[in-house]
């Protein structure tokens, strides 16, 4: 199904349709009526003109054929014509398809769908099938903004259960739809009536879901356990019970249920996803999530989409989002954006990553920064000998600025959050077309924030997150640079390792994150990446004995996200993070910012 490529208002579409109909050009009239219905599905004039067209053509169905990538307006017009031709079940099938394509549009808000006699004409079995199709095509639960568009289907369900009192499948399907639409009490009542009509596994599942939505957890678990008694081999129910228990703080019982499922089938996808999510929830060991990512990669034929990996990574440092920066430059930047006055100059008493300094001076034009050079290794020098240099000793970029085209290409999709590392790797393939000079240039010359909601939030609250986001995605882009080169001798490996061991900078973190991400998707590189991360973390800890290392705690969070890290390095990283927030900041301020960012990220 596809959207209309034209951009005419519905009224103009109907004007053109009337003209075409007057001239006998039925094909063009049909095209314009479909265009009007796509924009205004309930517009009476569109339905009247559709009826006129059908009267001229016979039934009009031939004017609205179905084919691959068919226009949604064509689908909806054909649905109404099928209903008028005495084939409402086929018409509802098409309306449900349109609902799945655009769930918030009122495709079904027409008299024939809500007519009391429709349910009798369809029969209980066919109505139940249609209601289940609606459930499969919509979110669970349906967002409040989309509920009104689905209420005609709920009216159909009400009419059907009134007409067919003893049909268990119909009551169950009606309950599932009511639950999705927030009619929880109705969902419980209908599911209970369905079970009284005919006890079954699916009936208990429907009742369990309805009771769970109603907050009646003990009864919900009892219903789901009865479903297991009906069919001990349906391991999806085990996963539902485990998830419900875990959601209500009963993690040990949840793990017991999921382990029972895995004992029956260690490869059952729902059980594996739930098990690894719950194990990570129990002990925070990223090995469970890496095992889940491996399972997903090795079993692309899973029965349906799962969200356990993304749910587990959401909000976790480096697993699902960038760790906010630390250090005196960022503290000054945040204070300035919070309404503080930096004055004409500021003195920073500890090392400042070049990226942080450049972000501060760009955000506060004309600011003079005085840097104090204390004891310990010079932060302006690479930690090891490298061939690829991002910054000069004086803190100025050692690479050329990227082309405007490259900068614009990158900023179109950069974001400080991602579902999980494999998803970030896949998304970064869009940067494979950028050359090495541009990718390196983006690290030291980040483009301005885009004129979007995300850009405005970052500009107003914490510009450092935008710069760090650009650097992260540029380094992820490096993973897709010259992929024909074998990894051990590749340019992408050499550059990322040099960035990791170069001048102490935010780019160090970005490069290490890229390496860690690669280790998530390619088990062959895990030993090398784990060794690099461990060595870089140990080096930062050693330097921190003599002077502050602003990136140290972020490196520790990166280590905790690294596959196959040794227990000793993991313990060291855990000591550095110590379960505290990644960055000291004014109470609630960063949390407020991340709520903004997450909301923007989740918008369709």
Automatic annotation (TrEMBL):
Keyword field: TPR repeat
UniProt feature coiled coil, ranges: none
Ranges of the TPR repeats in the UniProt entry: 203-234, 235-268
TM helices/strands, residue ranges: none
Gene3D superfamilies: Tetratricopeptide repeat domain
Keyword Oxidoreductase applies: no
Pfam families: TPR_19
Protein name: TPR repeat-containing protein
Organism of origin: Salinispora tropica (strain ATCC BAA-916 / DSM 44818 / JCM 13857 / NBRC 105044 / CNB-440)
């Amino acid at each position: 199904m596809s959207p209309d490529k034209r951009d005419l208002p519905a009224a103009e579409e109907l004007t053109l349709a009337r003209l075409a109909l007057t001239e006998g050009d039925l094909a063009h009239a049909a095209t314009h009526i479909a265009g009007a219905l796509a924009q205004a599905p309930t517009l009476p004039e569109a339905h009247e003109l559709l009826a006129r067209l059908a009267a001229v053509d016979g039934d009009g169905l031939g004017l609205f054929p179905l084919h691959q990538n068919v226009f949604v307006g064509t689908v909806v017009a054909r649905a109404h014509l099928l209903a008028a031709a005495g084939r409402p079940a086929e018409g509802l099938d098409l309306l449900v398809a349109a609902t799945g394509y655009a769930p918030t549009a009122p495709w079904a808000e027409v008299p024939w769908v809500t007519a009391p006699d429709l349910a009798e004409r369809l029969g209980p079995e066919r109505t139940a099938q249609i209601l289940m199709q609606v459930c499969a095509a919509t979110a669970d639960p349906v967002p409040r903004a989309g509920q009104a568009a689905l209420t005609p289907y709920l009216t159909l369900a009400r009419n059907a259960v009134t007409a067919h009192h003893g049909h268990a499948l119909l009551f169950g399907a009606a309950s599932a739809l009511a639950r999705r639409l927030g009619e929880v009490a109705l969902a419980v009542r209908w599911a209970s009536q369905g079970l009284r009509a005919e006890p079954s596994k699916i009936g208990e599942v429907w009742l369990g879901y309805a009771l769970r939505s109603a907050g009646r957890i003990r009864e919900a678990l009892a219903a789901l356990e009865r479903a297991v008694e009906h069919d001990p081999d349906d391991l999806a129910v085990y996963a539902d019970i485990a998830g419900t228990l875990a959601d209500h703080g009963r993690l040990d019982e949840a793990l017991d249920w999921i382990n029972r499922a895995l004992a029956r089938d260690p490869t059952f996808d729902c059980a594996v996803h739930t098990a690894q999510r719950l194990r990570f929830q129990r002990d925070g060991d990223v090995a469970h999530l890496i095992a889940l990512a491996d399972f997903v990669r090795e079993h692309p034929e899973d029965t349906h989409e799962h969200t356990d990996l993304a749910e587990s990574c959401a909000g976790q440092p480096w697993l699902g989002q960038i760790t906010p920066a630390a250090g005196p430059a960022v503290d000054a930047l945040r204070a300035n954006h919070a309404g503080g006055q930096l004055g004409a100059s500021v003195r920073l008493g500890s090392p400042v990553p070049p990226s942080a300094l450049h972000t501060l001076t760009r955000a506060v034009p004309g600011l003079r920064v005085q840097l104090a050079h204390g004891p310990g290794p010079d932060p302006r020098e690479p930690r090891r000998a490298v061939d690829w240099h991002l910054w000069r000793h004086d803190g100025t970029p050692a690479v050329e600025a990227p082309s405007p085209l490259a900068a614009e290409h990158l900023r179109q999709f950069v974001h400080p959050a991602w579902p999980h590392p494999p998803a970030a790797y896949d998304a970064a393939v869009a940067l494979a077309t950028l050359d090495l000079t541009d990718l390196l240039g983006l690290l030291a010359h980040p483009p301005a924030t885009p004129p979007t909601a995300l850009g405005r939030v970052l500009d107003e609250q914490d510009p450092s997150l935008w710069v760090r986001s650009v650097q992260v995605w540029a380094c992820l882009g490096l993973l897709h640079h010259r992929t024909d080169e074998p990894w051990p001798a590749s340019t992408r490996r050499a550059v990322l390792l040099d960035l990791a061991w170069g001048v102490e900078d935010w780019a160090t973190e970005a490069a290490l994150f890229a390496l860690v991400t690669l280790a998530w998707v390619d088990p062959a590189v895990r030993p090398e990446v784990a060794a690099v991360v461990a060595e870089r973390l140990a080096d930062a800890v050693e330097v921190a004995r003599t002077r502050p290392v602003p990136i140290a705690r972020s490196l520790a969070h990166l280590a905790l996200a690294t596959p196959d890290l040794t227990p000793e390095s993991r313990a060291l990283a855990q000591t550095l993070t110590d379960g505290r927030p990644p960055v000291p900041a004014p109470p609630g301020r960063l949390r407020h910012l991340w709520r903004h960012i997450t909301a923007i990220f989740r918008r369709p």
